[in-house]
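ok here's the first one, seq then struct tokens
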Amino acid sequence: MNRTIIALAGFLFICAGIITAFYQTTLESNLDRSSSVLEKIQEGEEYLKQSGPTGKEKALTIFSELAGKQNTSEFEFRIKYNQARALEKNGDHYLALDIYKSLRSKANLTEDEKNLLAYSLGNLLLRLDQEVEGKGHLESVLRTSADSKLRSKVLQSLGDFSYRKKEYELARKNYILSLQEDTNNTDSRIGWGRTLRKQGKEWASFDVFDEYIDTENQLSGAKTEIVDEYKNSVFSEAMQLYSKKTYWKSIELFQKSLSINPSPSVEENSYYHIASAYDALGRLPQALEYLNKTLANQVYTLDQQALYKKGTIYFRQGKYTEAASVFQTIVDKYPKNHITEKAIAWKKESLDQLKDEDEMPVNDDLSFEGVKQERKNSVSPLMEKTNQKASGNDLEF
């Protein structure tokens, strides 16, 4: 009897150990799988935050793969919702719309999930020009959600819709309300500025976001087309101010353009025009600094003009040897054109000035330095000719 009891107890202990080991292994396996799924979800969400084409394509791949697998209920909403977002960003609007609608029919959604879906549905419907249904979803979010960032996105969506409909005053009001909910909503800030421009309030538009957006990093995550429009508008405004001879403000905006849109082409044009503005303001050392930056960057479209301007500045500073060297570089480096012809003439003028200095006698009444200063302050025949034309061409002295 005792042996039977002992054997039975041993058997039960063995079974308990096997069952415990099985459940432990299964539990750990499920935890590992959940952890792996969560990591993939987070990776996909990071890609969704990016504005470039690569990010949205990678996000779609990740969430489509996850949606095709059997997942636990805790991740189902998050996976399907992000799949719809990725589809929407990739231009598959109607497929995204179907997923949003199917998610709304699911039971046991939290209030936050319902509001998130209502925003995404409303925003997409407005983009598809389904105004009544779209606004209905968005207005429901404003009634029920206390999430300031989500409310800001809702008001931004309404502003974007009004902007597309050319209802600029209504768009302006919605963008302002959006920023009151979330001051860091870059899309709304840019939208507000765009709207003010459409209303003819150019300077007010720059006051809205010009000081707020200092670098390209602050534009990350905003819509690509809106960001591009803003970047181009800053550079265009700088060029307009330069052409109107509003040099200090143009310098400020060219520097702003360099900070938010540091592409080689923008660098070339901004550096050159900053140098030209400083030249016009009589700030020759600063002009030379930016001309050297123009010559040192990756683009060469304005290098000949920059060298020419550099040579004329050296001439005005009385540095005739340096001026002649720069003008000779232009002649050697570039094919014959109107700039090389001017460079030849300026080189001759520089050498003539050097020759005159060499021949100038030094006596007690007039020192060599005094003569040199007098020559610097005099006007050469080339300068007289240019001044008579009074043209606004940068290539004129």
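and now the second one, same deal
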Amino acid sequence: MPKLKTKRAAAKRFKVTGTGKLKRSKAYKRHILTKKTTKNKRNLRKATTVDASNVKTMKKVLPYL
């Protein structure tokens, strides 16, 4: 059986934590920031984990991560 390929676009966007969860950055932080509050923008800087419903898909996309 051939080796599985990692989707490079996903590999650049996700990191694995020490406990094995996938860490991701939040969306809505690129442009149109003037109408967003400072508090909202500050919360968008924080990283979060991938939702449990998407973990199975992410394991297929990132087989060696």
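notes on #2: The chain has three helices and three strands. The domain at 8-60 is CATH 4.10.410.60 (Factor Xa Inhibitor).
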